[in-house]
Amino acid sequence: xxxxxxxxxxxxxxxxxxxxxxxxxxxxxxxxxxxxxxxxxxxxxxxxxxxxxxxxxxxxxxxxxxxxxxxxxxxxxxxxxxxxxxxxxxxxxxxxxxxxxxxxxxxxxxxxxxxxxxxxxxxxxxxxxxxxxxxxxxxxxxxxxxxxxxxxxxxxxxxxxxxxxxxxxxxxxxxxxxxxxxxxxxxxxxxxxxxxxxxxxxxxxxxxxxxxxxxxxxxxxxxxxxxxxxxxxxxxxxxxxxxxxxxxxxxxxxxxxxxxxxxxxxxxxxxxxxxxxxxxxxxxxxxxxxxxxxxxxxxxxxxxxxxxxxxxxxxxxxxxxxxxxxxxxxxxxxxxxxxxxxxxxxxxxxxxxxxxxxxxxxxxxxxxxxxxxxxxxxxxxxxxxxxxxxxxxxxxxxxxxxxxxxxxxxxxxxxxxxxxxxxxxxxxxxxxxxxxxxxxxxxxxxxxxxxxxxxxxxxxxxxxxxxxxxxxxxxxxxxxxxxxxxxxxxxxxxxxxxxxx
Length: 501
Hints:
The protein is of the alpha/beta class. It is built from 16 helices and 21 strands. Strands 1, 2, 3, 4, 5, 6 and 16 form a seven-stranded mixed beta sheet that branches. It has a five-stranded antiparallel beta sheet with strand order 17-18-21-20-19, sandwiched between helices. The termini are far apart.
């Protein structure tokens, strides 16, 4: 039986990192905000993705960094302690207890509703509680869908209880043999982590290379590094069947492989492992939200404009942010979108008197600002300034357009590259340091439109490139941004010298 209807100014579906940021920003002009969450507050990033995966990767990084420095390498003996690594991972994931996150939500003045929400009409939802109760909830101003995404698992694996990123990042044992199906960020990071922990890892890549969203040299560097650590990377691989029994999971795989002479050495094989991790992508979590009552198609991405307002819904009250839009696939970019949509809602529906000193500009100023490029009320960075870090070893970090993407966009580009191992900082950092930096420059405007870094600890170099891309800083001005010596950031000077600037 449904309880009495609850009314709020704004209702946010999903209390992950994106939903929390939406709710916080939307409440800043005094709007009442409720957040609906059926699982753990804090979402995928806190418990099954960003945080636990990096906790699994960090020990191997630390050991490798020490082993690369003569004098320090002698102090590092033996292998990782898997039990200690997993215990530390448990701490980072707060032992899958969201009490701390709940305290933050309540401390921010937001209302947390536990349960699963479904639209029954415009601005109206029913929230099914875990205890079997139903609550009708209405939004006076806006509803924001921030329910994230779900892993895509092919029917081939339906009966073998495969791991997805959730099972892998929360595992409490290290499988002796692990197959990773996929070649993207999740696949390469978790292949690295479990190889560090002692698993015999095979990566099955459907395409011809790893990390297809990055520059080709980045995926090639990661593939070489995995192979050097004993990971088998199989390209052109298709799993045609999967069966689990007491001996493990048996995968029938068809793949192609080309030897040094160009001969095709691929073919069918039977691969037996203890666990199979399927990391072949994710899809928007919009299946069971009642979107059909609003005239929208469930199960797919919600089309939004740069204000994150959902297309095809009259009245301008429905918004979406994060993975559900299909625009973003990282926590940091989803949180950026959350800040945008939260500010849009806070300003558009500002309940304060017109002379109250509107911190966010008020409805009229917000609408005016939304028409300006790089306005705080538009998610402009989603178009061509998205940063991405892959915490493999070597790390891969990039922002903006790749060379191929820039050419496809019709830009005349110049590509500048420099080997990081030739820097003085690399000599100090590690013996045999290897890495590469690349800039993609729009020659007409003389600005950086893309940057890629591959090498140890290059993630911390990315924000400078992100600022250059977003700020559209001319190379002539970048010449005056003097990098400290000896740091890896000196590569900016070397790249500008390569450009003749």
